[in-house]
């Protein structure tokens, strides 16, 4: 009888331990926030067909995913990116030009396909329009 009681007690202990493990919550996973097309928190969020411009030098902050040009950045999203484009990601398949004036006036530079990174400061605080070129 002692042996049977000991076996039952071991089985009950094992079952209780298994239930405790099964009921324990899984470790929390860090979820990255999703980023809409104009504002977001993901670094370098950009679609494979797009030319993307970002408010900060590390591919974060307000951003736009562009398939076609923007005649006047001052007229989009409250103008937050007008004269405030500090990084770019070009995975559009073509070159893009940055201009210091709305209407594609006064070309600052050409961003080749495949370029990802910060813009030089003397350009970053002047961009007012962009388009493929």
TrEMBL record:
Residue ranges of every copy of the Beta/gamma crystallin 'Greek key' domain listed in the record: 49-92
Alphabetized Pfam families for the sequence: Inhibitor_I36
Under InterPro entries, the record lists: Beta/gamma_crystallin, G_crystallin-like
What PROSITE patterns does the record point to? CRYSTALLIN_BETA_GAMMA (PS50915)
Which UniProt keywords are present, listed alphabetically? Repeat, Signal
Q: Where is the signal peptide?
A: 1-28
Q: Does the keyword Transferase apply?
A: no
Entry's family note = Belongs to the beta/gamma-crystallin family.
Its protein name is Peptidase inhibitor family I36 protein
Taxonomic source organism: Streptomyces cremeus
């Amino acid at each position: 009888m002692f042996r049977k009681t000991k076996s039952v007690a071991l089985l009950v202990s094992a079952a209780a331990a298994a239930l405790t493990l099964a009921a324990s919550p899984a470790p929390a996973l860090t979820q990255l926030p999703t980023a809409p097309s104009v504002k977001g928190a993901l670094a370098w969020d950009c679609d494979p067909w797009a030319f993307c411009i970002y408010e900060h030098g590390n591919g974060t902050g307000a951003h736009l995913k562009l398939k076609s040009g923007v005649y006047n950045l001052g007229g989009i999203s409250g103008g937050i990116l007008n004269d405030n484009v500090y990084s770019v990601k070009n995975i559009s398949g073509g070159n893009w030009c940055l201009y210091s004036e709305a209407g594609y006036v006064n070309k600052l530079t050409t961003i080749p396909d495949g370029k990802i990174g910060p813009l030089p400061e003397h350009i970053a605080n002047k961009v007012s329009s962009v388009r493929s070129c």
